[in-house]
Amino acid sequence: MSSDYVVGLDMGTTAVSVIVGEFTADGETRVIGAGTAPANGVAKGVIVNIDEATESLRAAVSQAERMAGVEIRGVCASVSGPHIRSFSSRGVIALPAGRREVSARDIEKVTEAARSITLPFNQEIVHSLPQDFAVDSHPGIRDPIGMSAMRLEAEVHIVTALGMPLENMVKACKKTGLEIVELVFDPIAAARAVLTREETELGCLLVDVGGGVTSYALYFGGTVRASGVVAAGGVNVTNDLAVGLRTSAAVAEQLKLSHGVALASLAQEEERVLVPGVGGREAREIRTQILAAIIEPRTEEIFTMVKKQVGGDPYYRLLGAGVVLAGGGSQLRGMAGVAEEVFDLPVRVGRAANLMGLSELVDTAGWTTGIGLLLWGADRIAAQGIGGPADRVKWMFHRIKQMTSLFS
Question: How far is it, in rounded angstroms, from Cα 76 to Cα 380?
Fold first, then answer.
């Protein structure tokens, strides 16, 4: 991959999406290509067949490469699945006697101290995100750099994943000629694309409704306070329709997308739809209200599962900006209404704003994670103080080496 480009890879349960961005002279990222393919060999966000997943990945990458006119090498990839765990950890360090001013290096050290914990077998740290700092026992400090101190503490949000699913993703990418430069938890990537700074400050719950799983990240005070996954998503809705209508999953998915609504009160009483028969049976006509009567209970259950996990967090009661939905599953009409009933908070469906380049290609909720990965990768490069192409290459290969060391 050329050092002037950054690539986001979202390998979901139902689709593999690749988005390519180009750095502009003023430091912006412009979308220059995108590719998508049905996700085979993936279940609930985890690869279950490497060969099938590799073929899906190869198809999406080829499409993106043709459109962008570049060869893709390094990618910023999403990670999700029921194996994800998250928690807070505290790190503490003492500053050297001859230097009592907090530096960026001290921030790295105290974050590393928070990471130095005993993890369950085969768990790997994906994120360690500082939340708040305390300087000489004075808490609630966001940026302690430059402050005089003898002791520095940090509360850090840790996200972990099972090593084997990560290793299988690395293998699938390598078979496609790709290297994973950075791994990002789905809702954290989606939040980068759709949340405003004001929302992250006031308090906002990002809920990413995927095909196999639904993940979430709770923000307050400008940082992640809680995150997690529930093992249900859009595929569960499709399966309910297939059983309830006695039809195939493919037909159920098509009916869900074309005539489905998540809130039964939005269904038109007179509207009807034809359901193809199975095994030579005749097609039959049903009211779309029947679709809604099947869809609404499952979507309500999914949001209730999320609320059960995150509702006990003390920051949940402080969500001044409500809930933002993301992911392909959030595109179903009425999803925001169901979420409002469950969370008892204002809800909007997130869309990435102010994108440059071929933004119309990725202007749906299903692309929010991919766009977030693109922006996350660009942020990381900027944060490293990387200005020139040679430096960008160094950073990318440094991250590739770090990723490889996880599984060597």
Answer: 10
pLDDT, tens digit, for every residue of 212-254? 999 999 999 999 999 999 999 999 999 999 999 999 999 999 9
**Where is the domain boundary, 108, 142, 161?**
161
Residues 6+ apart with CB under 8 A from 53: 11, 16, 39, 40, 41, 42, 47, 168, 172
Do 260 and 327 meet the contact criterion of CB atoms below 8 Å apart?
A: no
DSSP code string of 107-133: HHHHHHHHH-SPPPTTEEEEEEEEEEE
Instruction: Measure Cα distances from 204 to 124, 207, 241, 308 in Å.
Output: 27, 10, 31, 16
* 324, 348 Cβ separation under 8 angstroms: yes
Calculate the average pLDDT of the chain. Answer: 89
CATH number at residue 141: 3.30.1490.110
Domain that holds residue 131: 85-161
Could you give phi then psi for residue 185, rounded to 5 degrees?
A: -65, 135
Gap between the Cα atoms of 287 and 354, Å rounded: 40
Q: Are 83 and 165 in contact (CB under 8 A)?
A: yes
Domain membership flag for residue 372: no
Q: Is the pLDDT of residue 392 over 50?
A: no
Give start and end residues of each alpha helix (H) in 116-209: 163-175, 186-194, 197-202
For residue 107, is it within any domain?
A: yes
Does pLDDT of 377 surpass 80?
yes
For the domain that residue 270 is a member of, what is the CATH number?
Answer: 3.90.640.10
Q: Which single residue is written with the structure tokens 């003898």?
A: 150
Tokens of 321: 């900006």
Q: Are 263 and 288 in contact (CB under 8 A)?
A: no
Give percent of the chain with pLDDT exceeding 90. 75
Percent of the chain as helix, strand, coil, to the nearest 5: 40, 30, 30
Q: How far apart are CA 290 and CA 255, in angstroms?
A: 11
Bridge partners of 92, per DSSP, are 153
What does R_g of the chain's alpha carbons equal in angstroms?
Answer: 22
**CB neighbours of residue 329 within 10 Å:** 30
Residue 353 has what DSSP assignment?
-
- Residue 22 tokens read as 């180009």
